[in-house]
């Protein structure tokens, strides 16, 4: 089947590289930091669900395409098909709890708590928004700040502008990530034990040592 039949519906997801070594032997992928980018074809979607098929090596061999082509198309398609959602952490919790009273308070309190939950519209495999073109650059420019990025799970990230949390200790953030990953998170939702840092001047994301 021709690659051109599917290329407008190719999206990416982010997974942990070391935890998925066997899977990565069977699929085309790209490495990114301590993560891996894998690719899917969207078969159908509506406001509440998304049906996708993983692109395996077997499927990929039938296409006249490269992994770079998959990546280029996914960079274009994923924001268009899955969108972006950035909200304060308290508002996010209120939505999870379905508590309208808490939500009203949360929207006011979020302005004093600079923790921004970032995901896609469906909040599924939303950590892949990290790969959206110029997302970090635009967010950091708006905040006029470098940004710490907590990989909460495969579904979402938390972004923390350093200018809004001047006393923040990156080691404490790393300890928090480690604790949550082992005590609060399902194993199949694990993304990374690392804390990331986006340098607004260099336009570069790195792993915090």
Alpha carbon gap, first and last residue: 45 Å
Backbone CA Rg: 18 Å
Strand content: 15-25%
Q: What would you call the shape? A: globular
Sheet/helix structural class = alpha+beta
Strand count, sense and closure of the main sheet? 6 strands, antiparallel
Average pLDDT taken over every residue = 89
Strand order of the largest sheet: 5-6-8-7-9-10
Our count of domains comes out at 2
Q: N-to-C SSE series? A: EHEEEHHEHHEHEEHEE
Number of strands: 10
Fraction of helical residues = 25-40%
Low-confidence spans: pLDDT under 50, at least 5 residues?
none
How many helical elements?
A: 7
How is this structure best described in words?
This protein is of the alpha+beta class. The protein has two domains: 3-82, no CATH class; 85-207, no CATH class. Helix content is 32%, strand content 25%. The protein contains seven helices and ten strands. The protein has helices at residues 21-24, 57-61, 67-82, 89-97, 100-109, 135-143, 170-183; strands spanning 10-16, 29-32, 35-45, 50-54, 85-88, 116-119, 147-150, 157-161, 196-199, 204-207. Strands 5-6-8-7-9-10 form a six-stranded antiparallel sheet. Strands 1, 2, 3 and 4 form a four-stranded antiparallel sheet that branches. A hairpin with a 2-residue loop joins strand 2 and strand 3 (35-45). Helix 4 (89-97) runs antiparallel to helix 5 (100-109). The radius of gyration is 18 Å and the shape is globular. The model has no long low-confidence stretch (mean pLDDT 89).
């Amino acid at each position: 089947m021709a690659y051109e039949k599917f290329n407008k519906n190719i999206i990416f997801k982010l997974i942990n590289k070391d935890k998925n070594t066997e899977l990565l032997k069977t699929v085309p992928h790209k490495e990114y930091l301590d993560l891996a980018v894998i690719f899917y074809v969207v078969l159908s979607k509506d406001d509440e669900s998304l049906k996708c098929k993983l692109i395996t090596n077997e499927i990929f061999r039938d296409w006249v395409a490269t992994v770079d082509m998959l990546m280029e198309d996914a960079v274009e398609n994923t924001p268009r098909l899955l969108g972006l959602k950035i909200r304060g952490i308290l508002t996010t919790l209120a939505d999870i709890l379905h508590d309208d009273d808490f939500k009203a308070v949360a929207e006011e309190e979020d302005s004093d708590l600079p923790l921004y939950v970032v995901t896609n519209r469906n909040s599924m495999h939303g950590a892949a928004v990290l790969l959206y073109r110029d997302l970090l650059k635009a967010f950091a420019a708006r905040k006029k700040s470098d940004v710490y990025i907590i990989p909460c799970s495969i579904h979402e990230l938390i972004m923390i502008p350093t200018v809004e949390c001047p006393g923040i200790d990156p080691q404490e953030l790393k300890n928090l990530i480690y604790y949550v990953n082992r005590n609060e998170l399902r194993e199949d939702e694990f993304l990374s034990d690392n804390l990331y840092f986006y340098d607004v001047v260099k336009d570069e994301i790195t792993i915090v040592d």
